[in-house]
Amino acid sequence: MKKHLCILVAALLMMTLTALCSDSQAAAGYVSIKELRETLPQRWTGQYVVENGAYKQLEKGDTVSVDVPIVVPEVDAVPVVRITWEPPAEGLDESLEVVRDDWNAKGITRNFPMDELAFPVLENHMTFTPELPWEEAPAIAMAEFQKWMPFMKDKELTPYYQGSYGDSNGNGFQGVCFYTTYHGIPHLISNSPFYHRLESEKSEVEGRAIAPSSMVAMRIKRPGEFCTNISTSKEVGVDIDDIPLLPFDRIMEVLEQWVTDGYVYSLNEVSFGYMCFIDPEKKGEEFVLLPVWAAKGRTRADLSLPFDLKTDQAVVDRGGYLSSRIIVINAQTGQPYDLYNDKRPDRLHVPHITTWDEVK
After folding, report:
1. Which residues are within 8 A (CB) of 265 and not within 5 positions of it... i.e. 6 or more apart?
2. In angstroms, how far is the first alpha carbon of the chain from the final one?
3. Rounded Cα gap, residues 154 and 137, in angstroms
4. Could you tell me the pTM of the whole model?
């Protein structure tokens, strides 16, 4: 009798814990991407008193002003996407010069004077030829990718940086950078954003990076004259059609805490997108994209580090979210990633994915 009673009590306890867990998840007030976007402010503005300074840069008690756009893609769902490597290119036109072509990256040019790569970025948005007006350069560059490179025909790209590069004689080109994009959501953070490299994360395939990258760039003088750097991936499939997200006010609490804690000197953007994680069961071959919030600007990953105030802003912007100094937050849990100190061997493994069934 006592044995049966103990079993019954244990079963009731397990049911209670399960219910509490479910109630806790439901209490988090998860929302869809559409609901999130409808309640989202266009910009994050505020002034914050910092608690931790940086030597000769930012002192305790200083005020940091924030006035940045909040970038969220116009989509109705956030799928869990599985990706793999983009293989070496095939079927390229003979007029293309292939500088690099492997599983990690590709460098492909056409009729582009390589000495112009040394041109400096200009402060003004310059148009050097009527064939390539400033406002249309990203669309023209995307059309060039699709026209000349068969493996790029079905790629979604999201432009995130554009600059004019030129000399004193009026010669120049437009430089445009893109994120590889899946189901309307840009793959912001790829490869490994962590400062410390770990042996456990190295690819089992010789010569490959930890994970596929996401940065696609074109320097273009006019249609048919360009130089490209392509680090991209391709989709394997969708594991889950849509997953719930934390409301933005929960994410804002984390972001504001990072500012007051002293991790931010200045910001220029907060974005929603994908981060790439390792599937340990298919390590080196398949990877999973999960949603995160990311903020970039003059930030630091650890309070012991100074802010980088020397690197030109255009260089910082062109790098996207590649630096370990950026702020990255799990869009489902609100947990920020410690990109500088985290050395856990499984830090890039796919975490628990909360589903709609868990929070309904």
Report:
1. 54, 57, 58, 64, 297, 298, 299, 300, 307, 309
2. 37
3. 19
4. 0.89
Distance CA 176, CA 159 (A): 7
| Cβ atoms 339, 191 nearer than 8 A | no
3-state secondary structure 42-106: CEEEEEEECCCCECCCECCCCEEEEEEEEECCCCCCCCEEEEEECCCCCCCCCCCEEEEECCCCE
Residue 152, C-beta contacts closer than 8 angstroms, at least 6 positions apart: 145, 146, 230, 232
Q: Are 189 and 294 in contact (CB under 8 A)?
A: yes
Q: Looking up tokens 């914050």, which residue turns up?
A: 48
Could you read off the pLDDT of 115-164 as tens digits, one per residue? 999 999 998 999 999 999 999 999 999 999 999 999 999 999 999 999 99
**C-alpha distance from residue 4 to each of 15, 16, 18, 274 (Å):** 16, 18, 21, 49
pLDDT digits (tens, 9 = 90+) for 31-59: 999 999 999 999 999 999 999 888 889 99
What angle is formed at CA 219 by the lines to CA 310 and CA 137, rounded to 5 degrees? Answer: 105
Question: Which of left, alpha, beta for 45 (phi over 0: left; psi -120 to 50: alpha)?
Answer: beta
Find all residues with CB under 8 Å of 3, minimum gap 6, and list them.
Answer: none
Q: Which residues contact 289 (CB under 8 A, 6 or more apart)?
A: 80, 81, 82, 83, 182, 185, 187, 274, 275, 276, 277
Name the strand (E) or helix (H) holding 319: none
